[in-house]
Amino acid sequence: MQQQSQTEVTRVAIAGLGAIGQSLARTIAAGEVPGMILTAVSARNHDKAREFVSTLKTQVPVLTIEELEPVCDMVIECAPAALLSDIVSPFLNAGKSAIVLSVGALLFNDHLRELANRSGGSIYVPTGALIGLDAVIAAAQGDIHSVRMITRKPPQGLAGAPHLEANQITLDGLTEPLKVFEGNARDAAKGFPANLNVVVALALAGVGPEKTLLEIWADPTVTRNTHSINVDSDSARFTMTIENIPSENPKTGRIVAQSVIAMLKKMKAGLKVGT
Ligand SMILES: NC(=O)C1=CN([C@@H]2O[C@H](COP(=O)(O)OP(=O)(O)OC[C@H]3O[C@@H](n4cnc5c(N)ncnc54)[C@H](OP(=O)(O)O)[C@@H]3O)[C@@H](O)[C@H]2O)C=CC1
Ligand SMILES: O=C([O-])CC(=O)C(=O)O
C-alpha cells in the first residue's frame, strides 16, 4: 500500500488532454494546488500533447499510459471511457489513487473496485458536472425513497451517443425539446457513455444505478447543460439544479475541471469542508 500522507508531495499524472485534462494541467503546472506536482501527461496524439505542454508553466514528459504509474503517485483519468481500466488499474494495483472522470465506465469495470479494496488504493469520483452529492451521500446513511434526475442539453451536447444511433433519433434541425431517454442510470451509462457520467456519480452516491432514474432531453432552447435532481428520503427532501456552461467540448461543463481542482486541494487541506 502506497497511500500518501496529507503533507507529502503528490506526483500527479493526467491521462487525457482534452477539455478537462488541459484545464487541470494548466492549473496544477502553475503551482496553484499546494502539495501537488504535475509530473507526466498522456494523450493519444503525442505531438499535439507536446505542443500543449510547451505552453505550461512547468515542463513535463508526454508518456504512454503504461509509463505513468512508475513515476507518479496518483492519476487523474480524463480520457475516453473505453480506456478507464487501462489507465486506472496500474495505479490501484500499486495501492495508489485514481481520480476518475469517466464515471459511467465504473459500472462496467467492477474489478477496479475489487482491486482498490484488495490493494488499499483509492478511486475518487469528484462531483464533476453535478451538484449536491454531499447531501445525497448524507441522505443515503438513512433511507432514500427515490432519486430522479432530469437532464436538458443543447442537441450538440448529446451528439454521437450510441442510444441515439440505436434508436435512429436525429437531432438535426430540432426546434423544440425532445425526450430522448427515460430509464435508469445503468442504461443511461450504456447509451450515453460520453454524456451522462453525472447520473452514475449520483447513483454511486445514493441508491445505485438500477434505482436512480433519469430523463434526458435534447433541448434547442437551452445553451447550458442542465441537470435537476430530486431526492426524497427519511431525513430530507431536496431538489437542486445546476446549469453548466459548456467548455470547448460541448458535452463537458467548465465546472468539471474546477471540481477536480477543489478535490485535489481538499486532499491536502487541514480544513476539509463538505461531506
Ligand atoms: N464526471 C463528470 O462529471 C464528467 C466526466 N466527463 C468525462 O471525462 C472524460 C474526459 O472528458 P473531456 O476532457 O471533455 O474529453 P475530450 O474528448 O475533450 O478529451 C479526451 C482526451 O482523451 C485523449 N485520449 C484519447 N485516446 C487516448 C489514449 N489512447 N491515451 C491517452 N489519451 C487519450 C484525447 O487525446 P487527443 O487530444 O490526443 O485526441 C483527448 O485529449 C470523458 O470520458 C467524459 O465523458 C466529462 C464531463 C463531466
Ligand atoms: O456528465 C457528463 O458527462 C457531462 C455533463 O453532463 C456536463 O458537463 O454537464
From TrEMBL:
Q: Report if keyword NAD is assigned.
A: yes
What is its pathway? Cofactor biosynthesis; NAD(+) biosynthesis; iminoaspartate from L-aspartate (dehydrogenase route): step 1/1
Biological process (GO) annotations held by this record are:
NAD+ biosynthetic process
Which terms are listed as keywords in the entry? NAD, NADP, Oxidoreductase, Pyridine nucleotide biosynthesis
**Catalyses which reaction(s):** L-aspartate + NAD(+) + H2O = oxaloacetate + NH4(+) + NADH + H(+); L-aspartate + NADP(+) + H2O = oxaloacetate + NH4(+) + NADPH + H(+)
- EC assignment: the record states 1.4.1.21
Which protein, by its recorded name, is this? L-aspartate dehydrogenase
The family database entries (Gene3D superfamilies) matched by this protein are listed as:
Dihydrodipicolinate Reductase, domain 2, NAD(P)-binding Rossmann-like Domain
Domain named Aspartate/homoserine dehydrogenase NAD-binding: residues: 16-126
Indicate whether Endoplasmic reticulum appears among the record's keywords. Answer: no
Active site annotation, chain numbering: H227
**Which gene is transcribed and translated to give this protein?**
nadX
Family to which the UniProt record says this protein belongs: Belongs to the L-aspartate dehydrogenase family.
Q: Which residues form the Aspartate dehydrogenase domain?
A: 175-261
The miscellaneous annotation reads: The iminoaspartate product is unstable in aqueous solution and can decompose to oxaloacetate and ammonia.
**Domain of life the protein comes from:** Bacteria
One Pfam family here: NAD_binding_3
- List, in alphabetical order, the Gene Ontology terms for molecular function in this entry: aspartate dehydrogenase [NAD(P)+] activity; NAD binding; NADP binding; oxidoreductase activity, acting on the CH-NH2 group of donors, NAD or NADP as acceptor
Q: What does this protein do?
A: Specifically catalyzes the NAD or NADP-dependent dehydrogenation of L-aspartate to iminoaspartate.
Recorded hits in NCBIfam families, A to Z, give:
PRK13302.1
Residues involved in NAD(+) binding? A129, N197
Under the heading PANTHER family, the entry gives: ASPARTATE DEHYDROGENASE DOMAIN-CONTAINING PROTEIN, L-ASPARTATE DEHYDROGENASE-RELATED
